[in-house]
Amino acid sequence: xxxxxxxxxxxxxxxxxxxxxxxxxxxxxxxxxxxxxxxxxxxxxxxxxxxxxxxxxxxxxxxxxxxxxxxxxxxxxxxxxxxxxxxxxxxxxxxxxxxxxxxxxxxxxxxxxxxxxxxxxxxxxxxxxxxxxxxxxxxxxxxxxxxxxxxxxxxxxxxxxxxxxxxxxxxxxxxxxxxxxxxxxxxxxxxxxxxxxxxxxxxxxxxxxxxxxxxxxxxxxxxxxxxxxxxxxxxxxxxxxxxxxxxxxxxxxxxxxxxxxxxxxxxxxxxxxxxxxxxxxxxxxxxxxxxxxxxxxxxxxxxxxxxxxxxxxxxxxxxxxxxxxxxxxxxxxxxxxxxxxxxxxxxxxxxxxxxxxxxxxxxxxxxxxxxxxxxxxxxxxxxxxxxxxxxxxxxxxxxxxxxxxxxxxxxxxxxxxxxxxxxxxxxxxxxxxxxxxxxxxxxxxxxxxxxxxxxxxxxxxxx
Length: 463
Fold this sequence. Notes:
By secondary structure, the protein is of the alpha+beta class. It is 36% helix and 19% strand. It has helices at residues 51-57, 61-64, 70-81, 91-104, 116-123, 132-139, 149-166, 169-180, 222-228, 237-245, 257-271, 277-280, 320-334, 351-354, 368-379, 422-430, 439-448, and strands spanning 5-13, 23-32, 35-42, 85-88, 112-115, 202-207, 213-219, 248-253, 286-289, 298-301, 313-317, 393-398, 405-411, 414-419, 454-456. The longest helix is centred in the middle third of the chain and has 18 residues, at 149-166. The relative contact order is 0.08.
């Protein structure tokens, strides 16, 4: 088989949300070089099991009433899975639930995870479905105790035996290897360098021999993202160069994705890492400013913008060149004049007029005020948005374990601070720091805020 020790794991739960629901049954079928050991137990979820879940699994509140809590069996679960490849169907579900349950105990849980859905898709790409019932039917598996943890864990062990009968061991092992994506760490990094990196949101920094980082990145799963830099089957040229220079990795955890995005933007601009060329260029972002009266559009950088007055600004654009390309893009369908847009300097008809794509502002055939109004209309989809709140707001993020709570304090599209307790919040509200407007942060917040729950900060918000 693809590993000396494999743990086939299945859980029954009170629902589908790992952060809110609880485990009601655990089963582990551990296979060590052919020797099979089965173990299962009901678990007291310390909450009521919904009626529809009781009907599906057959596990009732009465059955789990005298069962051990997860805290009482956590050590045994960890011991039975230790050193194994963790195999589950829709593995993200089972693995996520165990991580949350261990997290509630203040413990971490990590394992090398293999999803049998992914394995089935890779080995049987012609098949239309890959759920557990489809696998049972396709491979003739014994499903005597379906929807109970031990019965379903046994099915997974049967499935793996079936694929080794159907296909060559080399093909199965290759498919498993690609799914596991075991990274080949650079020789100058310790073999266990990834072990200390958590599977949480945050930012990471790669360092070489100098004090400044080579690269800054962010992810909602730090370990997975860092490992991806060293996965030889899809390594980029940038990752190859980084691998030869990295001597250490540092990371910072955040409660959620927004915190990681904000922190990455800040670090890239302040530390200017050598390999973040694309992100560093965000400092070159500009907006187009249109005056009330007819005039050539002006390109303005972030530090020249007052975030309280965005009504005549359009963008943001990654660079001056990108802004010019945007003007050309709106000019053609609207018949706008290249001279009036500042795209060329010449007397007489502009290039667009010569090819009959300009209404004639450059030769007096169209009044400047009319051209200026049409330009505003053409640029309207790019208009910067005014701050939609009466003052400062807070966006709260809570880590999946509930241990880390962060409140991002925002005002006028500016990130004022991230606070972690009531006293920090009160200090920010009483004496807000002076923060320059940043078109990159504006772009980020415009995209993220509609997805998040926003709290007005006219009065102190309990953390």
